[in-house]
Amino acid sequence: MLVDVDAVVVSNSLLSPSYNVLALAAPEIASQALPGQFVMVKPGSGSDPLLRRPFSVFEVLRDNTQRITGMSLLNKQVGVTTRTLFKLSPGERLRCLGPLGRPFSMATGSEKAWMVAGGVGLAPFYTLAAALRKQRVDTILFYGGRSASDLFYLEAFRHLGVHLELTTDDGSRGYHGQVTIPLERALRRLDPTTRVRLYACGPTPMMQAVTEIASAHGRAIEVSLEQVMGCGLGGCYSCVVPIRRETGSVHFVRSCLDGPVFDGRQVVWNGLGS
Questions:
Q1: I want to staple 172 with a disulfide (CB 3.0 to 4.6 A). Which of 107, 148, 201, 270 is the partner?
Q2: What is the pLDDT of residue 213?
């Protein structure tokens, strides 16, 4: 059930000069959220920013008794809303609408799950990893950033039992280069009879490359698109995505309703912004 709450900031953890994680007391949303779903957020009560902005549910938070108490958001300050979220203090409030969107489909115990994240594209993968590992799915995170200082929550993923394959553009940690290179090498080494499901989130060119690699190896691939959204409810049509039908014809769907998770092989990538 969709709910709109006045969420209280519990903590604001600064990860770097650009990234932070906001913990919010919003159990009404967190208790319903599935991996890959998102919320629409608006800080303050004024008109700047005027519209809410979408954020993946990063973590579902629990207390010592395992009761769900809220959720967290991974934030990178790039605009008005994200700069405001970066500076929020415990006790402050923001409007939060959710959970919204189509979640990831879950790999089963007979499949491997390989997640591919670039930068802030890590956001939907902690809840997915937690759900996968709860079902004892063998899970790998291929995670790329500009440098070692742009790679976050590594120990948290390891604690879940997720194997990490790290890459950096400057070679300061892990493989020196794009995250798609160790991914393709791993797929080449994989026994063709081994079932694996891929998930990707990050810059559009990266997701397109992951989709092309997965398709070349005959593997299922889901992508979480980061489209601009104005309402999150399908009314403004600002988040449309071109999708190719099985007949070959192209039609547009709304990412907030039909996504943000899509079969990467159906996305018309040259119709998306980067």
A1: 148
A2: 97
* Cα–Cα distance, 240 to 22 (Å, whole number): 28
Q: What is the CATH number of the domain that holds 196?
A: 3.40.50.80
What confidence score (pLDDT) does residue 77 get?
92
Single-letter residue type at 137: V
- 183 falls within a domain: yes
Given 42, 66, 100, the domain boundary residue is 100
Question: Which residues of the chain are modeled with pLDDT < 50?
Answer: none
Cα gap 230→232, rounded to integer Å: 6
**Domain limits at 189?**
112-227
61 and 122 co-located in one domain: no
264, part of any domain: no
- Angle, to 10 degrees, between the axis of helix 204-216 and the axis of helix 180-189? 10
- 171 inside domain: yes
Give the pLDDT confidence score for residue 121 in this predicted structure. 96
Q: Which residue has the tokens 């799915």?
A: 137
Strand extents, DSSP E, the chain: 3-14, 19-25, 38-43, 53-56, 59-62, 68-76, 93-100, 112-118, 139-145, 163-168, 175-176, 196-201, 220-224, 240-244, 250-254, 261-263
CATH number for the domain including 36? 2.40.30.10
Query: In the chain, how many domains are there?
Result: 2
Report CA torsion sign: 59, 25, 262, 211. negative
Residue 268 lies in a domain: no
Characterize the bridge pairing of strands 93-100 and 250-254.
unpaired
Same-domain check for residues 128 and 159: yes
178-223, pLDDT tens digit by residue? 999 999 999 999 998 999 999 999 999 999 999 999 999 999 999 9
129 phi, psi to nearest 5 deg: -60, -40
